[in-house]
Write a structure and sequence with these properties.
Pfam families: Acetyltransf_1. This is GCN5-related N-acetyltransferase. GO terms for molecular function: acyltransferase activity, transferring groups other than amino-acyl groups. Keywords: Acyltransferase, Transferase. It is built from five helices and seven strands; from the N terminus they run E-H-H-H-E-E-E-H-E-H-E-E. It is an alpha+beta fold and 210 residues long. The chain has one domain: 3-Layer(aba) Sandwich (Aminopeptidase), CATH 3.40.630.30. A seven-stranded mixed sheet has the order 1-2-3-4-5-7-6, with helices on both faces. Helix 2 packs across helix 3. It is globular and about 45 Å long. 43% of the residues are buried.
């Protein structure tokens, strides 16, 4: 992983609810949700684009304050989130990342992204850096992750990796159900104060799959 600051590239999924897939194979949004947007669609709406970073900060800060293992020990500052998302969106514009956001009734309920590895020998591959959703039991985490995997496949990514905190059983179960498998683990590697958890590495190989 290549980003800096507070191990912020830890992956998180907040729920494992699921709705039947549509014809494209991507799980459907819950009925009261409105939009699953990619970076291009998000920035095509100037008003939504302008409010994205503040809304994302509010969502991430709330989740971290409630104990979500998103890589920050304390809620991130607004400028940190803005800088992070600006980098992801810029990379998405050049084909080196993908961003997804879920809105319902005009409110941001979830977001996720992956980025292509910067090292030249790793360029065919990407890392799923973060998936965060506000509501449990609505299938948003599964929806975002499924869409991001399909985005990676469409971008020609060969291997999509991620890491998660070892006690994040909900996320790890979801990743496994979507074809990710564990390929390594660092015992007691994640530190929050005096607490320690394993860092679990997972991957899905997208080569040769239609």
């Amino acid at each position: 992983m290549t980003a800096s600051g507070a191990d912020r590239l830890s992956s998180e999924v907040s729920d494992t609810g699921r709705l039947p897939p549509d014809a494209s194979g991507v799980d459907r949004l819950p009925q009261d949700s409105e939009l699953l947007l990619d970076a291009r669609e998000l920035h095509a709406d100037p008003a939504r684009s302008a409010g994205f970073a503040p809304a994302a900060h509010a969502l991430l800060a709330e989740l971290v304050a409630a104990g979500a293992p998103l890589g920050w020990p304390d809620p991130p500052a607004p400028d940190e989130v803005e800088e992070l998302l600006a980098g992801v969106c810029a990379a998405a514009g050049s084909g080196d990342a993908a961003l997804r956001a879920v809105y319902a009734d005009g409110s941001l309920l979830g977001l996720g992204y992956w980025r292509r590895y910067a090292r030249p020998t790793h360029r065919p591959h990407a890392d799923l850096e973060k998936v965060a959703a506000a509501a449990h039991g609505r299938g948003l985490g599964r929806l975002l992750t499924t869409a991001l995997v399909e985005d990676a496949r469409g971008a020609g990514i060969e291997v999509l990796t991620l890491d998660a905190r070892g006690d994040n059983h909900r996320a790890l179960a979801l990743y496994a159900s979507l074809g990710f498998r564990e390929y390594g683990r660092l015992p007691g590697f994640v530190a929050v104060g005096e607490q320690r958890w394993d860092k679990v590495f997972c991957m899905v190989d997208l080569r040769g799959r239609g």
